[in-house]
Specification:
The complex is a heterodimer.
Chain A: E1 2-11, E2 14-24, E3 29-33, H1 40-48, E4 54-62, E5 65-66, H2 72-78, E6 80-83, E7 90-94, H3 95-109, H4 117-130, E8 141-142, H5 148-162, E9 166-170, H6 178-191, E10 197-202, E11 215-220, E12 223-228, H7 230-239, H8 242-251
Parallel strand pairs in A: 3-10, 3-11, 6-9, 9-10
Antiparallel strand pairs in A: 1-2, 1-4, 4-5, 7-8, 11-12
Helix pairs in contact in A: 2-3, 5-6
Chain B: H1 2-26, H2 35-45, H3 66-69, E1 74-75, H4 83-87, E2 97-102, E3 105-106, E4 120-124, H5 125-128, H6 135-146, H7 153-160, E5 165-169, E6 179-185, E7 192-194, E8 197-202, E9 207-216, E10 224-234, E11 239-247, E12 252-262, E13 267-274, E14 279-288, E15 294-303, E16 308-317, E17 323-332, E18 337-346, E19 354-363, E20 369-378, E21 384-392, H8 396-403, H9 409-425, H10 431-445
Parallel strand pairs in B: 1-7, 2-6, 5-8, 6-9, 7-10, 8-10, 9-11, 10-12, 11-13, 12-14, 13-15, 14-16, 15-17, 16-18, 17-19, 18-20, 19-21
Antiparallel strand pairs in B: 2-3, 4-5
Helix pairs in contact in B: 2-6, 2-7, 8-9, 9-10
Pfam family, one (chain A): ABC_tran
Keywords (chain A): ATP-binding, Nucleotide-binding
Family (chain A): Belongs to the ABC transporter superfamily. Ycf16 family.
Chain lengths: 252, 446
Amino acid sequence: MLSIKDLKVNIEDKAILRGLNLDIKPGEIHAIMGPNGSGKSTLANVLAGREEYEVTDGSVTFEGEDLLDMDVDERAQKGVFLAFQYPVEIPGVSTATFLKSAVNAVREARGEEELKSIDMLKLLREKTAMVGMDQKFLQRSLNEGFSGGEKKRNEMLQMALLEPKLAVLDETDSGLDIDALKIVADVVNQMRDANRSFLIVTHYQRLLNYIVPDHVHVLVNGRIVKSGDKSLALKLEDQGYDWVKGEAALAE
Amino acid sequence: MSTATLQDRYAEVKDRFRSLFNVFEGALNGHRDQPMHTLRKAGIERLDVMDFPTRRDENWKYTSLNQMLRLPLQDSYQVEVDAATIDGLAIPGLDAARIVLVNGLLQTELSDLDKIPEGMELLPVDQALEDEAVKGQISEMLDAAVKNDHNPFSALNVAFAKNGFVLKVKAKAVVEKPVHIIHLAAPTGEPVFINPLLLVLTGAHSEGAVVETYDALPGADQAYFSNILTRVHVGVNAHFHHYRIQNDSAAATVVSNIEAHQQQDSTFSSYLVDLGGDVVRNNLSTILQGQNTMTNYYGVYLAKGKQHIDNQTFIDHALPHCGSNELYKGILDDRGRGVFNGKVIVRQDAQKTNAFQQNSSLVLSKTAEMDTKPQLEIFADDVRCSHGATIGQLDESSVFYLRSRGLSDLQARQLLQQAFLFDVVENMPLEAVKDYAEQLIEKKLK
C-alpha cells in the first residue's frame, strides 16, 4: 500500500530524514517510535504534503502512485489521512460545515454523489457517537476553544468519517489522559480491517497497550535503526532509547 | 494654477447639477409651494457655498469621485419592472412589508404600502412635512442634512430625492416585522442620478428594524450614481436596527450619508454589507444626546476587480455611560481597494464610556490595497476604550488543514474567507437577513 524508499528530507537545508525505508501492506498497523528530534513528525508531515519540507532524494508510492507528486487535497481524496499533532483552530468555520465539505469533497473525488442532508446528518450522528463526541461540538467553530483531548477526538471523528485507506497518527496520544487515549485506540481498533493500514507515530509505548501493532520501528537520526514486533515497544518502554541509539551509532 | 483648474472643473460640475435641478423643478407642476420645495431649493443652493471633496481633504485622501462627477447625470424616470423580478430580490424567509423603488421611484403596485406592520407608519416625505405631528422634526432633519458641512451630497439628495420616506415607529411599539425597502437600479441607457431618502423617527420605548437592499438589474452596466441619505432619530429607551445590503452593479458610484441621533437609554445598530459598486463611500455617524446609550456598527466590505469601498465612521461620545461597539471586516482581492477611517471622540464629560473598535482586512493579491485609520480621541479619564486594526492574508496553516481533509485549495480559501466575514454577519439579529447576506457573500467569493 505504502512504500517508502531511501527517503531524504531537509528542512531549511538541515537533513532530517536521511534515507528512510518502510513498507506497509494493506491491513497492517505499523508504529514508528523514536526519541525527540529523530524525524518522526517530519515523516508524518511529508506524507501529508506539507510544503516546507524539502524531499531531496528517495520516493514514496501509495498504491503504486507517486505520493510526493500529489497535491495535499489529492492525497486526502485518494485515501491518505493525517491525524495532526496540533490541529488548527479555525474561528468562524463551523465544525459541521467543515465535516460536510470534507466528506463531500472526498466522495466527489471517488465519483460518488454528494450525501443528502438527511444521510449526512445520520452519518455525523453515528460517527460522533463512535468517537464519544457530544453533538454540540458540531455547532462550534472548528477546534476553537477545544481542549487538547477534544481536538484529538475531533481528529478521530474526521478519520472515521473519511474512511481512509492509510491513516497516519502523528503523536495523537501526546497530552491525552488515559480515557482519551482509550477512545483513540478504540476508534483505530474499530476501523482496523484487512484493507486499511495505519502508521502510528509516537514517542511513548502506552498507546500500543491498546492498539497492537504488527510492526514496530525505531527511528533515530532520520533512519529506521531497528524493527520488530510489539515486544520491541515494550523493551523501549522498559529500557529507553539509549541502547538503540548506541547500536545505531555502532552501525554507522 | 492647479487650484484654479479644480475650481473651474467643479464650477462646471455644479452648473450641471443646477441645470439638472431646473429640469427637475420644471416637472414639479403644482408642487412648488410645498415646504419640500423650499428645502429642495436650499439643497441645490448649498452648492453655492460648498465644494465637492477632493483628495486634498484628509477624509477623502484615498477616494475620488471625479469619474462620477464627470458623468452627464440624468434625472431618473419610471422603468417598468415585473413582479417576478422583484420576487427574485426578496429575502427568502423574511416576513416583511416590501417597498419597491426602481431608480429611486416608488413602484406602488409592487409595494406593500397597505401592509406596513402595526406600530409602524410609512409616510412620503412631502406628506410628512405637512403632518402636524412630525413636520417640525422632519423639516429639522432635512435642514440639518442640507447643512451637512462635510460634503454636499446630503444637500443634493434633499434637492433631488423623488420618493423619500419617513418611517415612524410608534412609542412603546415593539415591531418584530421589519420593513424591507428594495432599491433596484434599472438600465435606462443614460447615467441616472438616484437619491434614496429615508428618515426614521422612533418613539420612546419602541423597537423596530428596516432592511434596505440595493441591487441592479442585469444589463445595468451603464454607470449610475446612487446618493443615499438616511437619518435616524432613536427615542428614549428605543432600539432600532438599520440593515443595508448593497449589491449594486460594478458600474455604480454609491455615496451614503447615514446619521443617527440617540436619546438616552437607546440602541442604534447599523449593519452595512458592501458587495457591489465601482466606487463606494459610506459616511456613518452617530450623535449621542442622552446617557446610557449603545451604538453598534457592523460592516462588511468585499472588493474585487477594481472596486473601491471606503467606510468612514464617526461616533461622538459627549455624555457619560455610553457604549459603542464597532466591527468592520473586509476582503480585498484583484485590484480592489478598501478604506476604513473610524473616528471616536470621547469628550471630557463622557466618563464611563465603553468604546470598542476593530477593523480587520484580508488583502489577497499584490495589487489589492487597504488603508485603515482608527482614530480614537479620548479626553475623559475614566473610560474603557480599545481599538485594533489588522491587515493580513489567509492563514496558510488553516488552508493546509482544510486541504488535508480533501477540500480543494479554492474551496479551502473560500471557506476561510466566508468565516472571516461571518464574524461580522453573525451579529445580525434577523436570521433571514443574516442567511441572505451570507449567501451573497458566498456567491461573490466564488
